[in-house]
Amino acid sequence: METTRGETPATAPEATRAFDRRRILNWFLGSSFAAMLVAIIYPVLRYITPPRIAEANTNEVEAGAVNDPELREKGFKNVRFGAEPVILVRTADEKFFAMSATCTHLDCIVGFQKEHNRVWCNCHGGAYDLQGRNVGGPPPKPLTPYKVHLVAKGSGPSVIVVSKA
What we know:
Blueprint: H1 12-48, E1 60-65, H2 69-74, E2 76-81, E3 84-90, E4 96-100, E5 111-113, E6 118-121, E7 126-128, E8 134-136, E9 145-151, E10 159-164
Antiparallel strand pairs: 1-10, 2-3, 3-4, 4-9, 5-6, 6-7, 7-8, 9-10
């Protein structure tokens, strides 16, 4: 057997064993470091990204009674339609209109101006008529309209039901 640099045949296997040990230690340290990074980064990513929860498909929602005090006083009421806010408007002549409450300009929530009989976005002065068409300001598109039905509930006042158009 040939040896290099003064190695004896008896010490050559020990050098191979030492090299194998070093490779195993390097692998162990590298994988430990990688596991530590995953243990730190994974919870941070889970915190930053919200969970994906499937929302129930909503086709209609009860918005309250016809004699709702908030609706009588302010002339409008914001209602949740699944994940979407909807504005329900009651005019002076007892007509009801419903449309998306998210302004098409910058996604602000709209309100109702009773004295002007219009839906108004306070963020940048967007104005809509009672059918949701934009009539002034910067909004590029009309609001999505919804249907409004009055449903009689026994001997009490009718209930307002908002559904998709």
